[in-house]
Design brief:
It is a single chain. The protein is of the alpha/beta class. The protein is 52% helix and 10% strand. The chain has a five-stranded parallel sheet with strand order 2-3-1-4-5, with helices on both faces. Helix 3 runs parallel beside helix 13 and helix 4 crosses helix 13. It is globular, with a radius of gyration of 24 Å. The two termini are 31 Å apart. The structure holds adenosine monophosphate (AMP) and magnesium ion. The site of magnesium ion has 3 residues, from loops.
């Protein structure tokens, strides 16, 4: 039975989910400024703090159970807040169980392989949460918007357009299904930013000296392809939101809201997995009791046989 809390989280993330099989037109279907009932920054902060605690607890169980991994795929246009989302949402989790990989322009070695190659090497293992800051989805986004990038991939002549993008969607769906069936749950987040908010954030990067390093003239050139990207993203959402790996469109015009929403979607996925601390069987418990006796017998004079058990007993008395 799901708890009230789990149901609240499931209800909260529903409006962000792209229904598998639905046709998406980003500009019409999703509002980058949507706040979904979260009234203020203060309220968002409290919600995020609770979400971070929840993620920490679930990650610890995921790690202990060691049967499932979680792959978080983050896609967005420039300045949508991917880095900040990772920094805030994952701030409470044990670094030992998390990895982040940022994918840039592929190297010549990477281009010499099939397009999944570099991504498959970075997948999380069981017990781990892996974050892809950009991902194999760039292969149907930036590569689609800039055909010269496809040219560099040196595909066999009969494997080029037309039909290439539909085929890649299918290949991605199949790959994700394989991962899902093998215990790697995929959480796909698209941070949906408005064109006007992107303009403001670029200006901020120019105006604030400490933010200058984040500014890239290339990002402003990329902004000229805004409409092409909106179309490419709409097509990705339409074709690759599946029952086993649905997309979530996160309203990103308010950073504080995007963080709460992203945290909730990740928490919802972990709740779905429902990882548990492993319990041992009677035989192993008996073995432990035998070892305990041996250790207790080694207590030096004056020391409690088992100081931990003694401490617990004191704790119980004082309750
Ligand atoms: P950033 O994430 O801002 O550091 O930028 C990374 C750059 O790498 C972006 O301009 C992406 O479009 C580019 N990039 C990422 N993946 C690919 C890819 N598969 N092919 C071409 N360019 C890519
Ligand atoms: Mg950039």
């Amino acid at each position: 039975m799901p708890s009230d809390r789990d149901e609240r989280i499931a209800d909260f993330v529903k409006p962000f989910r792209v229904e598998p099989g639905s046709k998406v037109s980003l500009g019409k279907d999703f509002d980058p400024a949507f706040k979904s009932g979260v009234g203020s920054k203060k309220q968002a902060k409290d919600l995020l703090a609770r979400g971070i605690e929840l993620l920490a607890e679930y990650q610890s169980r995921l790690y202990a159970q060691d049967t499932h991994g979680v792959l978080i795929v983050l896609q967005a246009l420039d300045a949508a807040g991917k880095d900040g989302t990772i920094r805030h949402v994952m701030s409470g989790v044990n670094p030992q169980g998390v990895s982040v990989h940022s994918f840039k322009v592929p190297s010549s070695e990477e281009l010499d392989h099939d397009y999944f190659w570099r991504y498959s090497q970075r997948l999380p293992g069981r017990g781990e949460i892996g974050i892809f800051n950009r991902s194999y989805y760039e292969e149907v986004l930036v590569v689609r918007v800039h055909p010269e990038l496809l040219e560099r991939q040196k595909l066999p002549i009969d494997q080029r357009e037309p039909g290439l993008w539909k085929r890649r969607f299918q290949e991605i769906n199949d790959w994700e299904r394989t991962l899902n069936d093998n215990g790697i749950k995929i959480v796909k987040l698209f941070l949906n930013l408005s064109k006007e908010e992107q303009r403001t954030r670029f200006l901020r990067r120019i105006d604030l000296p400490d933010h200058n390093w984040k500014f890239s003239a290339a990002d402003v050139r990329e902004r000229e392809y805004w409409d092409e990207y909106q179309k490419a993203f709409s097509d990705v959402l339409t074709n690759t939101s599946t029952e086993w790996a649905p997309w979530y469109v996160i309203p990103a015009d308010r950073k504080w809201f995007a963080r709460v929403a992203a945290g909730a979607v990740i928490a919802n996925a972990l709740i779905d997995i429902d990882p548990r601390y492993p319990r041992i069987d009677d035989e192993d418990r008996e073995k432990l009791q035998k070892i305990k006796k041996t250790l207790e017998a080694q207590a030096p004079p004056g020391a409690a046989a088992d100081p931990f058990a003694a401490g617990q007993a004191v704790g119980r008395e004082s309750v």
